[in-house]
């Protein structure tokens, strides 16, 4: 037996080896075939997109293996694509269905681009696909039902697109039974409608469900009570109805709850405090009843927002007990009653940064425990619009990091405590509409960072301290409706950044300006000095304030004429000089101020003719009454002005205006025809000479380099001016990207002739650009819409210029009404850019229509729904576990930088912070981020290695 075993074994081995060698070419051919499928799928994807940064177009070439292409990850064992990561490259175009041929694909991230069109139905063919992130694009259409057939899918991000349709239809087609491993799903910030599918309850491993900022309706399905693994539950900013879902108290692993801005009613469950919530935002609903006392038991909470509901009763005394990480508490705009004893428990909140219990019905006096609030962290303290009495507590002076203090609209008495002047970081202080008495302390000038100081509608007396002139960053000073006396300190006129000054309804007197007459506040937009005792003439220096939109000097004792320098105030819209002793004639130049819409000159000593045109076309008798000897139109109930030789000469001129055109028009037409003929001959002669020189010298004359492009070619180049090729919109035009037939890529600017002055503005721009050459300026190839001038006539004479100084979405709101360019407008644009950067949403996105814009969207989400609006790429390291070390620190960096964007983009220019303040804030955030996030992550990476 042993003798015959060896030959038999050798035979088997030989046959096996022979089989392997025979099959090896087959294996190689199959592998090459599969590689070719992956290659073709990637090339199809490349062909379906536009790549402004050239990441794909320059790197994805067949000269190298696709495993070395940017954003492509292959398996270690075989050259097959397992991951495609092209997030944040501003890719345009559509998602090619050919991606479904990447059969080994497990990770797909195309987020934070500008991809359009539908989500391909074929993605369900990718049986290995576990992670899909298509968020922060412009994808449209409905969510394919095939997505819910992907049995191994664990993570699905479709947020921040313009997807529509009902999620229930897509889900119910498959019943979600094929998503047994789903852990994270986010479809927030879309246009989805209909009810929330109860079938989500079948995803037993679901940990994060984010459906916020859509148009979902109906009630919250009770079936979701079975999602016992749920940690994040975000349904905010929808149209959901019904009562507060009581089953939430059974989701014992829940850490984030967002139900804000819906139509939920009923009470907050009394036992909600048994959860270990980290964020809870139920603001802007119709919730009633008291704040559950059990919320005091949640020691893990960082954000608690129950604002803008109908909550009643006392604030739980122990609300702030044992909350070491609470940084945001918002109780404002409810019907809460009782005293302020709960403030004592907040002394345990060592991380508290924002405390807001304004617009309620709270009473009593401020407790001494204010001194125990977190000195190191508290930045915003809001308690306006309540019924709080007594004196302003001097303990506020201990809150050294306070940035904003709002005590407006209470019943405070006593004097301004000197301790407030110790708050060196304070930028905004609202103390108006109280009963504060006494003088403004001279030490108030210590507040060097103050931006807005509002102490109006009180009982202050004495002088305005000249130390206010030391507040170099001040943008708004409101001291109206008090009993202040004496003169305006001269150095106040040196506050160069001041935008609004309101000293009305006091007892101020003397001349308006100091003897020097110098005014440095060139950015001043609103000046109200009415109802005082000012005298003397109106100073010429007021004419230097060319940004002034509102001037109210009524009810004083000013004398003399209106200064001729007022003609320089080109931005003025509202001018009230009534109830003074001004004299002389009404200046003709007032009719030339084209933005002036309100003018009141009543009860002065003006004489003579009322000017014609401009604001005088609509002026009423009430705005002119009470003067000495005005004359004018009968509609103003004024006597007619006597005829003068000058007026008779006017009549003769008017007659010539009608006679001369009829006589001169035939001669003018003949002259134009002769000039046109001569010019045409001259051009033909030059063209012949130019051709001859070009042929002889091998050059093309300059005037022949202008390229003529037909309208039909422009249509083809821009795909009928498709939105996909839209680069941006301005006040009077849109710019499209176009590909001409010869391969030249051009920018095509299309002006809107319905916008007044658009053609004039366009002509000026072209005239300027054609005269300059610079590496950062595009070259003008050709201009036309001359055709428009022929069809519509001389636009420059028929339409007044009304172009907007900015780009839609980034343009500050005051430009729309005043058209005044200022550094504060630039700050607004910067703020919008910051919000766009950290949310990944453009201000011109389709979701921001009607009354919603990017700033409002962010403002409503902060701070409770920060995770729902922030760019998902910033949270990528924590996408599987948001409780990792460093996540809280990351939020602490994202929140202040988003707040900077909101402060910069405030609707009111006076509320915007200056860039001098922005820079140190950003540096501090950067330092905190590096020390609290980057370094720990680097250490963790080294540990894993």
Mean pLDDT over the full residue set: 81
Q: Describe the sheet with the most strands.
A: 23 strands, mixed
Total helical segments: 15
Envelope shape: globular
Q: Level of helix content?
A: 10-25%
In words, what does this structure look like?
With 945 residues, the chain is an alpha/beta fold. It is built from 15 helices and 49 strands. The chain has a 23-stranded mixed β-sheet, with no helix packed on it. A nine-stranded parallel β-sheet has the order 31-33-35-37-39-41-43-45-46, with no helix packed on it. Helix 11 runs antiparallel to helix 14 and helix 14 (887-904) runs antiparallel to helix 15. The chain is globular and about 95 Å long.
Record the SSE blueprint.
Layout: H1 2-47, E1 49-50, H2 55-59, E2 72-74, E3 81-85, E4 92-94, E5 107-109, E6 114-117, E7 131-133, E8 138-141, E9 155-157, E10 162-163, H3 167-174, E11 184-186, E12 193-194, E13 208-210, E14 215-218, E15 232-234, E16 239-240, E17 256-258, E18 265-267, E19 279-281, E20 286-289, E21 303-305, E22 310-314, E23 328-330, E24 335-337, H4 342-345, E25 354-356, E26 380-382, E27 389-391, E28 404-406, E29 411-413, E30 428-430, E31 437-438, E32 452-454, E33 459-462, E34 476-478, E35 483-486, E36 500-502, E37 507-510, E38 526-528, E39 533-537, E40 550-552, E41 557-560, E42 574-576, E43 581-585, E44 598-600, E45 605-609, E46 629-631, H5 645-697, H6 711-717, E47 726-729, E48 733-739, E49 745-751, H7 758-769, H8 787-792, H9 795-798, H10 813-818, H11 823-839, H12 854-861, H13 866-869, H14 887-904, H15 915-944
Parallel strand pairs: 3-5, 4-6, 5-7, 6-8, 7-9, 8-10, 9-11, 11-13, 12-14, 13-15, 14-16, 15-17, 17-19, 18-20, 19-21, 20-22, 21-23, 22-24, 23-25, 25-26, 26-28, 27-29, 28-30, 30-32, 31-33, 32-34, 33-35, 34-36, 35-37, 36-38, 37-39, 38-40, 39-41, 40-42, 41-43, 42-44, 43-45, 45-46
Antiparallel strand pairs: 1-4, 2-3, 47-48, 48-49
């Amino acid at each position: 037996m042993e003798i015959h075993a060896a030959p038999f074994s050798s035979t088997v081995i030989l046959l096996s080896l022979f089989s392997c060698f025979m099959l090896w070419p087959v294996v190689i051919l199959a592998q090459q075939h599969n590689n070719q499928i992956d290659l073709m799928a990637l090339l199809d994807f490349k062909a379906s997109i536009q790549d402004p940064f050239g990441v794909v177009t320059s790197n994805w070439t067949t000269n190298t293996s696709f495993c070395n292409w940017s954003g492509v990850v292959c398996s270690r064992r075989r050259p097959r694509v397992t991951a495609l990561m092209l997030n944040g490259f501003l890719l345009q175009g559509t998602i090619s269905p050919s991606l479904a041929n990447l059969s080994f694909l497990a990770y797909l991230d195309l987020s934070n681009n500008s991809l359009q069109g539908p989500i391909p139905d074929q993605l369900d063919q990718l049986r290995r696909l576990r992670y899909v992130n298509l968020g922060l694009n412009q994808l449209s259409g409905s969510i394919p039902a095939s997505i819910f057939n992907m049995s191994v899918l664990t993570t699905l991000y479709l947020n921040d697109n313009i997807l529509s349709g009902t999620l229930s239809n897509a889900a119910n087609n498959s019943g979600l039974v094929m998503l047994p491993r789903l852990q994270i799903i986010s479809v927030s910030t879309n246009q989805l409608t209909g009810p929330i599918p109860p079938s989500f309850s079948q995803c037993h491993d679901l940990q994060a469900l984010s459906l916020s900022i859509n148009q979902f309706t109906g009630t919250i399905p009770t079936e979701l009570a079975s999602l016992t693994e749920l940690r994040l539950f975000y349904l905010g900013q929808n149209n959901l109805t019904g009562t507060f879902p009581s089953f939430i108290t059974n989701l014992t692993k829940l850490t984030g709850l967002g139900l804000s801005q819906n139509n939920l009613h009923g009470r907050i469950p009394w036992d909600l405090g048994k959860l270990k919530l980290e964020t809870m935002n139920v603001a802007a609903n119709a919730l009633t009843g008291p704040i559950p006392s059990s919320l005091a038991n949640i020691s893990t909470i960082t954000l608690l927002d129950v604002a803008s509901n109908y909550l009643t009763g006392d604030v739980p005394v122990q609300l702030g007990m044992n909350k070491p990480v609470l940084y945001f508490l918002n109780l404002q705009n409810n019907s809460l009653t009782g005293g302020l004893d709960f403030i004592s428990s907040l002394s345990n909140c060592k991380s508290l940064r924002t405390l807001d219990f304004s617009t309620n019905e709270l009473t009593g006096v401020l407790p001494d425990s204010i001194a125990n609030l977190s000195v190191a962290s508290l930045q915003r303290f809001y308690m306006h619009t309540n019924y709080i009495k007594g004196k302003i507590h001097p303990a506020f002076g201990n809150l050294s990091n306070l940035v904003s203090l709002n005590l407006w609209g209470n019943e405070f008495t006593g004097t301004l405590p000197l301790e407030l002047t110790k708050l060196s970081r304070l930028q905004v202080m609202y103390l108006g509409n109280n009963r504060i008495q006494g003088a403004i302390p001279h030490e108030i000038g210590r507040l060097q960072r103050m931006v807005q100081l509002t102490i109006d509608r009180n009982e202050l007396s004495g002088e305005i301290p000249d130390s206010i002139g030391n507040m170099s960053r001040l943008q708004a000073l409101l001291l109206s409706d008090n009993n202040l006396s004496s003169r305006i300190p001269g150095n106040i006129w040196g506050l160069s950044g001041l935008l609004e000054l309101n000293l009305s309804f006091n007892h101020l007197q003397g001349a308006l300006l100091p003897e020097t007459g110098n005014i440095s506040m060139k950015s001043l937009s609103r000046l109200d000095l009415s109802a005082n005792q000012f005298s003397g003439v109106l100073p010429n220096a007021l004419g230097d304030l060319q940004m002034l939109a509102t001037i109210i000097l009524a009810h004083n004792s000013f004398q003399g004429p209106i200064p001729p320098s007022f003609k320089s105030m080109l931005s003025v819209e509202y001018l009230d000089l009534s109830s003074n002793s001004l004299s002389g004639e009404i200046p003709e130049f007032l009719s030339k101020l084209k933005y002036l819409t309100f003018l009141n000159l009543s009860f002065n000593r003006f004489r003579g003719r009322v000017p014609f045109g401009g604001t005088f076309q609509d002026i009423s008798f009430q705005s002119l009454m009470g003067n000495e000897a005005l004359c004018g139109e009968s509609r103003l109930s004024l006597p007619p002005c006597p005829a003068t030789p000058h007026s008779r000469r006017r009549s003769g001129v008017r007659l010539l205006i009608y006679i001369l055109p009829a006589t001169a028009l035939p001669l003018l037409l003949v002259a134009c025809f002769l000039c046109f003929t001569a010019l045409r001959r001259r051009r033909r002669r030059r063209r012949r000479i130019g051709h001859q020189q070009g042929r002889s010298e091998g050059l093309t004359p300059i005037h022949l380099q202008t390229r003529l492009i037909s309208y039909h070619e422009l249509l083809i180049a821009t795909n009928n001016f498709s939105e996909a090729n839209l680069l941006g919109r301005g006040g009077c035009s849109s710019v499209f990207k176009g590909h001409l037939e010869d391969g030249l890529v051009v920018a095509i600017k299309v002006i809107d002739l319905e916008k007044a002055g658009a053609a004039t503005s366009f002509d000026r721009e072209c005239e300027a650009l054609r005269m300059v050459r610079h590496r950062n300026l595009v070259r003008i190839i050709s201009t036309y819409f001359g055709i428009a001038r022929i069809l519509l006539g001389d636009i420059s004479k028929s339409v007044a210029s009304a172009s907007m100084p900015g780009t839609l979405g980034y343009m500050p709101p005051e430009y729309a009404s005043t058209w005044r360019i200022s550094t504060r407008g630039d700050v607004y644009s910067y703020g919008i850019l910051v919000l766009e950067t950290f949310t990944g949403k453009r201000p011109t996105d389709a979701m921001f229509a009607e009354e919603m814009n990017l700033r409002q969207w962010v403002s409503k989400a902060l701070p409770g729904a920060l995770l729902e609006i922030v760019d998902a790429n910033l949270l990528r390291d924590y996408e599987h576990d948001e409780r990792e070390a460093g996540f809280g620190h990351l939020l602490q960096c994202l929140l202040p930088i988003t707040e900077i964007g909101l402060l910069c983009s405030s609707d009111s220019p006076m509320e915007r912070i200056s860039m001098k303040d922005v820079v140190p804030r950003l540096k501090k955030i950067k330092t905190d981020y590096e020390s609290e996030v980057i370094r720990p992550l680097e250490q963790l990476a080294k540990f894993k290695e």
